[in-house]
Write a structure and sequence with these properties.
By secondary structure, the chain is of the alpha/beta class. The chain folds into 2 domains: 3-67, Ribosomal Protein L25, Chain P, CATH 2.40.240; 75-232, SPOUT methyltransferase, trefoil knot domain (Alpha/beta knot), CATH 3.40.1280. Helix content is 29%, strand content 24%. The chain has 6 helices and 11 strands. The two termini are 25 Å apart.
């Protein structure tokens, strides 16, 4: 069954937005009385029934609700330097949403090739991925900040903090340091990797240098590998 998205459900919005309504009536041919699944993007799945099959504004009645958030008991905050190729960022957002992530922040590092990033399209990609993978949780996607600004504003003192860094003298693999059922902040650098000053600043903020394996990974691949590893260790 298709999953629809209505972020206003908790505020009493008993209808679908125009795009969702059009898909429901024009594409899926739903009728009055048909059951549908809806999420608010905050971790709750709603079982509903169509009361008004209007292709511009489908009316609904809520029958039941259940918290099915994928990441029960832990929280993943992915912090990543945006890639030069926008398609790779979109791919990362899609796949990380499918696997499971609470929040994605973008940080402009000294070696970053992309320094401007609009998040509107990324949010749409995340919504689509959430619906396709039958998740009930839409990750928060933040506007890009400079590395220094992020480090002075966003550090979570209670989280396990990791920074992936290509370093032959860095034997600690992420999988060996994870403590299950925690909050995590996971830093992934740009194509040219972090500047040594950024590593020093991150370590001063409590981030541990970690390896993701012997291969040199693209930024988006490293970010997805870290997301998957954190999820697997919390199953």
């Amino acid at each position: 069954m298709a999953l629809f998205y209505q972020p206003g459900l908790r505020d009493g919005a008993l209808y679908l937005e125009p795009d969702e309504s059009k898909h429901c009536i024009k594409v899926l041919r739903k009728k009055a009385g048909d059951p549908i699944d809806i999420t608010d993007g905050l971790g709750t799945l709603y079982k509903a029934e169509i009361t008004e099959p209007n292709h511009k504004k489908v009316g609904i009645k809520i029958l039941s609700q259940e918290n099915i958030a994928f990441l029960n008991g832990f929280h993943i905050h992915l912090i990543v330097a945006p890639t030069k190729n926008l398609d790779r960022i979109e791919w990362l957002v899609e796949k990380a949403t499918e696997i499971g992530v609470h929040r994605i922040s973008f940080v402009i590092c000294k070696h970053s090739e992309r320094r401007i990033l609009k998040t509107d399209r990324l949010i749409k990609k995340a919504i689509s991925a959430m619906k396709q993978s039958k998740k009930a949780l839409l990750p928060q996607i933040d506007e890009a900040l400079s590395f220094k600004d992020w480090m002075t504003q966003e550090i979570d003192e209670n989280a396990q903090k990791f920074i992936a860094y290509v370093d032959s003298a860095n034997p600690n693999h992420l999988k060996d340091l994870i403590q299950p059922k925690q909050s995590y902040q996971m830093f992934i650098g740009p194509e040219g990797d972090f500047d040594p000053e950024e590593i020093t600043m991150a370590q001063a903020g409590g981030f541990q240098k970690v390896s993701l394996g012997p291969s040199v990974l693209r930024t988006e691949t490293a970010a997805l590998a870290a997301t998957l590893t954190l999820n697997l260790y919390n199953q």
